[in-house]
Prior knowledge:
- The complex is a heterodimer of chains A (450) and B (227).
- Chain A is 52% helix and 18% strand.
- Chain A is of the alpha+beta class and 450 residues long.
- Chain A has three domains: 4-156, Beta-Lactamase (2-Layer Sandwich); 231-293; 302-440, Histidine kinase-like ATPase, C-terminal domain (Heat Shock Protein 90).
- A five-stranded antiparallel β-sheet of chain A has the order 4-3-7-6-5. Chain A has a five-stranded mixed β-sheet with strand order 9-11-12-14-13. A two-stranded antiparallel sheet of chain A has the order 1-2.
- In chain A, a hairpin with a 2-residue loop joins strand 5 and strand 6 (122-132).
- Chain A is rod-shaped, with a radius of gyration of 51 Å.
- In chain A, 23% of the residues are buried.
- Chain B is an alpha/beta fold.
- In chain B, 40% of the residues lie in helices and 21% in strands.
- Chain B has helices at residues 10-22, 33-42, 59-68, 84-93, 105-119, 152-163, 171-178, 189-201, and strands at residues 2-6, 26-30, 47-51, 75-79, 97-100, 126-129, 132-135, 140-143, 146-148, 210-213, 217-220.
- Chain B starts with a strand and ends in a 7-residue tail after the last strand.
- The chains are: A alpha+beta (450), B alpha/beta (227).
- Chain A binds chain B through residues 280, 284, 288, 291, 310-311, 313-314, 317-318, 320-321, 323, 340-341, 344-345, 347-349, 403, 405, and chain B through 81-85, 87-88, 91-92, 96-98, 100, 102, 107, 110, 114, 118, 123.
Amino acid sequence: MSSIHLRLLLVATLVLAGFIGVTGWALENAFREASKTALQEKLQSHVYALLAAADVDAEGKMRLPEHLPEPRFSRPDSGLYAFVTTPDGNLFWRSRSALGLEIADAPSVAPGQTRFQRSNAMFLFSHGVEWEDDSGANQAFTFNVAEQVQSFDRQLGRFRLSLWSWLAALAAALLLVQALVLRWGLRPLRQVEMDLKAIQDGQAQRLQNVYPRELQGLTSSLNALMEHAKAVQERYRNRLDDLVHSLKTPLAYLAALLQDPDTSDDQLRAKTMEQLQRMDHIVQHQLRRAAVAARTTLVNPVAVTAVTERLLTALEKIYAHRELAVIRSLNAAAVFHGDEADLMEVLGNLLENAFKYAKTEVRVSVDIEEGLLIIIEDDGAGISPEQWETVLQRGRRADETVSGQGIGLAVVKEIITLYGGVLEAMKAESGGLRLRLHFPHEDPMRIPNT
Amino acid sequence: MRLLLIEDEVPLLEQLAGQLERKGYAVERAANGTDGLYLGQELPVDLAIVDLGLPDISGMDVIRTLRKGDHAFPILILTARGRWQEKVEGLEAGADDYLVKPFQFEELLARLNALLRRSGGWSTPVLRFHGVSLNTASQQLVVEGNTVALTAYEYRVLEYLMLHAGEVISKTVLTEHIYEQDYDRDSNVLEVLLSRLRRKLDPENRIKPIETLRGRGYRFCLKKAGG
């Protein structure tokens, strides 16, 4: 059952079959009952006519005429029969039509009672009466009128045929409509599929059609995902380009150095080392820049406090010998809309810097203020806010004597920019550096640009 | 000091191990996680250097397994990626510090020394005792203001005893932490080393910095002078 179309069609067919079956059954039953009631009433009226025709003979006994107003009683084997029986089971009178009729177990009904039954291919209506003759003696009779079932069954058969053929036609029509509705209703999905195929084939860049509201979430997410993938690919390509170009300079320099017969061994060693470091720097820088996910779509918000705590625990371990006081003010509700690894990269580098330069304490505050606000403060005299800007701009070490990663800070700047954040450096009250990092509220569906 | 170096790139492993040995460390080499884990569990290691990108067992798992087995020696991780997520995971697994590849050998040495000192309770690179101080960065011994030259093995023994000052160190333990696995333990080289060290530390035989406890081992018994 992998097709929605098949599923819906199957369910609709089952429901329709059930509905039509029950309807047909109910209608047939109702018709049968109504026909039977009508027949009963007809037979009853015949009995009343018979009673009305009953007369008294010369001896004062009941007598029934040879001919009755209903012609079918007079025509032999007409299908409509009348007969009168006595309580002892003897036949008292029969209509001409019933002359050849086998009347077994002539029914006997108490006076005033009636009975309607189906027996031996007949519908039989019996009515008990008490006849008082002239001498005042009471004689009980049962007036019976019977009609053959054939005509009733034929009528019912005709009705049934007509009923079920109409219902079948209706079912077929409904199924057809259903199939058409499904086709029409599911057409947008097929459209998406075709559009995706077009994208795969390189004929389109994104899902451009107008899709129904129910699908817009899906299609816009798909678009965002594709654009993100494209942006990442683009960024990788650019970084690779940058990487290749920036590696060429030290390589050219080294080649020149090696070919120069005047280069002394010591010089060669020193210069090679210098260029190797430069190349390593370049590789690290570009790779880390390329690794930035800058993902804001389809990500769960990251709890900033948890990430900060993990980083602080790690840094406290590395910098245990510094015996720094770490003063935290962390709002557990603060979240970052983006990739956790990116946030870790930013905070890890900024915090490590603070740990490196702090004299006695590091202050970290995470809060919600029209977005996410993170403040990192140290009390060291590491770098001034002005120098900080330079460090960020160039991705260089401000102070070569402190083992640091200028690369890290350049990546930090890149990530912050990609997420639309702002990093400001200022002098802290303690004389150290105060970093204010702010990520404003933003549309979570925003597509990051390179 | 006996180091365990787990690094799958054999040229780098050999290069580093050689350099570390020249700096006076006994180095156990492992080119994969399985061997590294075995050596870490079986040998009295003072510090392990673990590369995170190992082919069989990940460096992270090696660290976790060692820590689960109550091996408390400091662990320094080497990582090629240098992303914070990986660093944090490594430190959470039980490592004490990290170094991003490629690195300068001096940087590695500084981190090693810092970790070893920290595990011995020192926060500065110079181990200061009354009258005697040992600079672990420059490997220089200063006695009463005069610099004294030490051989590599003399330095190894003295550093180990100083970092475990006040503790009784048996001859076996000292041997295990000073020499590589395949050292011939029956020789009396250690006694010769110790008597040479005593003469260098205490030429006039006044302060008696290293005690011999018969049948039990040796003890560095000078008092720490701050630091």
